[in-house]
Amino acid sequence: MVDRNVSLKQMNTFGIDAQAKLFARIHDVSHLESVLEQHSEESIFILGGGSNILFTNNFEGLILKNEIKGFKIIEETDDFAIVESGAGENWHEFVMKCIEQNLGGIENLSLIPGNVGASPMQNIGAYGVEIKDVFEYLDAFHLKEKEMHRFHADECKFGYRESIFKNSLKGQYFICKVAFRLSKKHVLNTSYGAIEKELQEMQISEPTIKDVSNAVIKIRQSKLPDPNEIGNAGSFFKNPVVPIDILSNIQKKYPDVPHYPAPNDKVKLAAGWLIEKAGWKGRTFENRYGVHKHQALVLVNYNQSKGEEILQLSNQIIRDVEDKFNITLKREVNIL
Questions:
Q1: Residue 295 belongs to domain spanning
Q2: What is the count of structural domains for the chain?
Q3: Is 93 considered catalytic here?
């Protein structure tokens, strides 16, 4: 079934009131094929959990809402299990289900918004873990060729918040299932200081994967606004990876600038710190939108703001950070 002139306000975590000319909820591949046959000439956008999108206009085409469900262990040994999930499953609920079955590797990715299908597209990551670390394969339907293809890790071209599905194959595939190789013999990653500190405050000296997950959830809830209360898409910008000489220049004025090692003799800087130092943290405009008061990386819709206003705000932030630090921030959020 395809609906017309559908409001997208409840389907994006920014709470932007945009409309789709055509809209279909996709529950399986046969339904997807049928919808594509009927509307082959329309421009198409695939919508997951709506947590990484900023609508700046109505969409004058067909939006396919991915609601393919499922959870299945398809292979298991004493050391690991390969778990296959429908791409339309909620990511955090999937993480919780895996932890309940004592399957580790994604506990550091607890409470990240969005659906399972977006996790390899974005190569989502947090607290020292990325999807590429546990990714096994995904099955995706090519919208033009009408064929199902399987992609393994080396074919996905994972990078920092990047994959082939955000670049050369953008908009060409509808991800249906994603499989992960999760551990039964856990190697915890608590290298990020915030996790260690939280575990200490919880008086836990020998943490389980559930303990690490609880610590991550507590940290995220303390830093990031709940999109059910304040419209937002989480981190709006990527943390920039820069040459060491840029870090050295910044350290002359800000010796305590947070930084982390990155490949190829580069360093990763905290975009939120750069935005805060550029004077944007907590700024609001007409009490309708602005930069969150606790986390400068998050742009927020307080009350009926337009997507175009938030986009222009992001442009101003990019310019100011570039002027102050000679670093060009890149948006993590997709603009439509």
A1: 231-335
A2: 3
A3: no
